[in-house]
Amino acid sequence: MQDLLKGEWNNKMPIPKIPIGNIIEAGIEWLTKNFAGLTRAISQFTASIIDAFIDILMFFPPWIIIIVTTFIAWYITKKIKIAFLTILGLLLIWNLDLWDATIITLSLVLFSTVIAVIIGIPIGIFAALNNRARGIIMPILDFMQTMPAFVYLIPAIPFFGLGVVSATFATVIFAIPPAIRLTALGIRQVAPELIEASDAFGSTRMQKLIKVQLPLSYQTIMAGVNQTIMLSLSMVVIAAMIGAKGLGGEVWKAIQRFRPGMGFEAGLGVVIIAIILDRITQGVRSRRT
Amino acid sequence: MVKIKVENLVKIFGDNYKKAKEMFDKGIPKEEILKKTGHTVGVGGVSFKVYEGETLVVMGLSGSGKSTLLRLINRLIEPTSGRIYVDGDDITGMSQKSLLNLRRKKFGMVFQKFAIFPHRTVIQNVEYGLEIQGILPEQRRKKSEEALELVGLKEWGDKYPKHLSGGMQQRVGLARALAIDPDILLMDEAFSALDPLIRREMQDELIDIQSRMKKTIIFITHDLDEAIKLGDRIILMKDGVVVQEGTSEEILTNPSDEYVEKFIEHVDMSKVLTAQAIMKSAETVGFLKDGPRTILRKIQEAGISSIFVVDNQHKIQGIVEAEDAASIIKKGEKDIKSIISRNIKTISPEMPLNDLLPMMVDTKYPVAVVNDEKRLLGVIVRGSIIAGLAKRGVE
């Protein structure tokens, strides 16, 4: 028992270990060696975009961002309550000295979401229209979602180095499955008689997709985007472990210094951002009906 | 002129139909093919012609392959074997590109469940076929508005389908098919989902539109009455094959086998006919202010034995018999109120004939057909029932 708690494992199989770990490591080593130029380029490119994102948001004083965000929240949801919640939440964040951290987190989350959506929706469409592709893609998504998110951080570092790009990489992998899954689901849920009607009038596959399938699966796809945003946000603390700053960084600092109050404040910031983003995307989703 | 010619068309469902097709070619019955290979023979060797400008009704019970047949004609379902000629061109070997073009220009399709796009307004739905052809916006809007006007929904263009009733949605479906000005209309149980009254209205409207547009129509239905009403010719299908082909009269008077006979038997004329359909209009009525001599005169002129009396709003009051009128004339009375018998039966115009028949047995007077406000609409005597049934039978 004592040994187990110390992490010393006793039960070894008499057959030699299958070298899954070694294979993965060799693969990653090969990739980093041969594609170092490429990964570095991607890394620099991504970092500069995220920096630009952050710079733009930092350029404006907080109160302008607060007013604009509140207006957006009101315009999309048409609910005074949500506008009120947005303004109060953001003022509280500013008051708690978390403004800069929040901007960094927000930039990271939005950037990761954009990437996840750009990659995820086409894959989802492909999975919806091609049965064989769906048979391959769906189990991979299950795998991606059940593999502990920390694991993605480890190979990200040799590829992209410590910092924001590795964090984005891990976040995109972790957050992309709902975008793919719900896009595929939405398209496959379109009533077969509508597909038939579209075919009967001589639509090409592309016309059918753009004029019938995508508009009719809009709500489901937006539900996927909403989940992608929420998952990205849930990655910020984990991403902080490899050097991404922001609200997650504050939480991580609080853990290291054992400052529960500071941790709670930063956690509260994450919650506020989560609620605002959730309400706005839900609003976008139900707007078009 | 032959518009569509179908030759020996076969459809076997399933991914691995080759073996099933071999068995089918050997003449093995479809039940056995299903048991041995798991493949369903949807359409098993069907041939027919459709002439330009005619309405061909394909009738059969569910599972008879009639809807599959319709989808084979524009290749929404790929035929397993056989040939389909449209305007003399074999379309079974056609490339995907020419097939799209054919669907865009020649076929308009109307569906049982309407299949109206819920995310598009009514006018956008009607425009769909023109839009995918790449017709310019102003031009397609104009054509679509004309099509909408044709089905009587001119004012509804900007509404979304969810605001429309079933009958109106199907009008949109019809307008969508007509907007592309197709030669051929494929109608798959187009009116089956509508309630009877709306359904009859839509049938009348289709007949009206057809008399002006002269399209070639293939209409699928499971309802014999609809088939008789709409079809220039009727094809009867059972288990994927045609069991009889002919005009409605030929099929009704000379059913080719038991199946057809049963189909016809199911049409109970007394259920189909309503009081309204067989009543005679009440041309001769008495009024309360009429004296007995006027009443007697009206009765004699019309050659009847009794007359319904109405007030000045045409509401039914009762009936006066010729004998009674004659007897009070002898007594010198001027007012007919004393001889109006209120012991009459009134029914609504929607009453089906089989409810009406027992009523006719135990009344000596004709039955008055009245509306909700008791206004007299028509009269039914025993003779009119027989006339109604007989007329129906030979139609």
Describe the structure.
The complex is a heterodimer of chains A (289) and B (395). Chain A has a single domain (59-286), classed as MetI-like fold. Chain A is globular, with a radius of gyration of 22 Å. Chain A has helices at 2-5, 20-34, 36-59, 62-77, 80-95, 99-129, 131-146, 150-160, 164-188, 192-200, 205-234, 236-240, 247-257, 260-287. In chain A, α6 runs antiparallel to α7. Chain A starts with a helix and ends with a helix. Chain A is mainly α and 289 residues long. By secondary structure, chain B is α/β, with parallel strands linked by helices. Helices cover 42% and strands 23% of the residues of chain B. Chain B is built from 17 helices and 17 strands. Chain B has helices at 18-25, 30-37, 66-73, 96-106, 122-132, 137-150, 166-179, 196-213, 224-230, 248-253, 258-266, 269-272, 275-278, 292-302, 322-331, 353-361, 382-394, and strands at 2-13, 40-51, 55-59, 81-86, 89-90, 107-110, 184-188, 216-221, 233-238, 241-246, 280-281, 286-287, 306-310, 316-321, 346-347, 367-370, 376-380. In chain B, strands 6-7-8-3-9-10 form a 6-stranded mixed β-sheet, with helices on both faces. In chain B, strands 2-1-4-5 form a 4-stranded antiparallel β-sheet, with helices on both faces. In chain B, α14 (292-302) links the parallel β12 and β13. In chain B, α1 packs antiparallel against α2 and α14 packs antiparallel against α15. The longest helix of chain B has 18 residues, at 196-213. Chain B is elongated. The interface between A and B is medium-sized, with 19 and 25 residues.
In what order do the strands lie side by side in the largest sheet of chain B? Answer: 6-7-8-3-9-10
Shape of chain B: elongated
Q: CATH homologous superfamily of chain A - what is it?
A: MetI-like
Radius of gyration of chain A: 22 Å
Principal-axes shape call of chain A: globular
